[in-house]
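Journal club prep, notes for RB
We'll compare a predicted complex against what the paper describes. Inputs for the zinc ion case:
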Amino acid sequence: MNMYIEGAKCIRCNKEWQISEIRYQCPTCQGNLDIAYNYKALRNNYPKTSFRQNKLYSIWRYLPFLPLKKMPERPLQLGWTPLYPVPNEYGIKLFIKDEGRNPSGSLKDRATAIVLEAAQEAGITHLTTASTGNAGSSLACLSASMGIETTVFVPDKAPEAKIAQMCIFGTRVYSVIGSYDDAYDLCIRASNLLGWYNRSTGYNPLTREGKKTCAYEICEQLDWHVPDWVIVSVGDGNILSGLWKGFKDLYGIGYIDRLPKMAGVQSFASNAIALSVRSAQNKASIDIESVQASTIADSISVNTPRDGVFAVKAILESRGMIIEVTDEKILMAIKTVAQRWGIFGEPAGVACVAGLEKLWEDGTLKSGEVVVCIITGNGLKDVGSALKASLNRVRVIASQSDLTQVLRRI
Ligand SMILES: [Zn+2]
């Protein structure tokens, strides 16, 4: 493990652990764990200026800040996804981070890469994960060339393209007749029973460590300036918590002098984090609410968020917002993002843009503010939703007379 790691702290009971004492959750209270680094030593040995000479444009440029011993020999391009400045009607400086450009088409690759490399360093040969779809396709994709066996548990209704990704990369897929939460619990049972290393989001503390690299990139790509707002969709809460961890790392090390406000976006049809944020505002402790999730945005369709406490803390600590939008607004955002900026996002990916519209409408955003929206997954993963958003094709017989008739109707 990385020599700059000091230990791990439980997010729920605050108990501190040596790395050798933990595997997944807090042994005392089963809260999720947060890995702690020696920021002072990192600051002394890796000044911010050292990145100017670093020509490794992937997540591995941040190796000293990751829970790994050595540089992996990875053939796939991971991270350093584009951060596009895009025009908008709000008078803000808007940037879109396109995470669909990762190897399996989603931000989940950042987490998977760290878990897989750590597993390989430990000599582990079989990994498993629960997934709404993207974590599974990510694990299948990144493990394919590493000689590591994988087994994925997904809800039966996961989009076919994601299932196809898992199958073609050679993972064993169990389609669980039930929800993501059912798949999650079954995956933990299987890993306990068979000794497989479990990558499941939040449960494995290394997932947050991979996702934090997205925050590192945002700051570095903005020449170490900090955005006023970072907007991202929320399901389990692990992406939001990973981003917040990344910004706090950079602040702790001294690379940045302030922190952004974090805005999480949920569908009204899967809003457990929103309910939890509201109930936490009047209490000292954070209790995670459960819902019966049914949103079309499958990647954020979660009954009980598995990294919810950290995500709620991210919103409260950053003085950010939780935003709820309708599924109809999410479908409209697929079209907006594609037709205005040339980026194809899946429903959960573009939900941030639906949230951005709402933040503007309620007067929260101020003119001139720097805002980053993160498109977390590629639209080709769920073409069914894209077709619902914009089915505008015209069928035509291959003859000139028919074409002429069709053209007259325009
Ligand atoms: Zn604990």
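Talking point for the session: The two ends are 64 Å apart (CA to CA).
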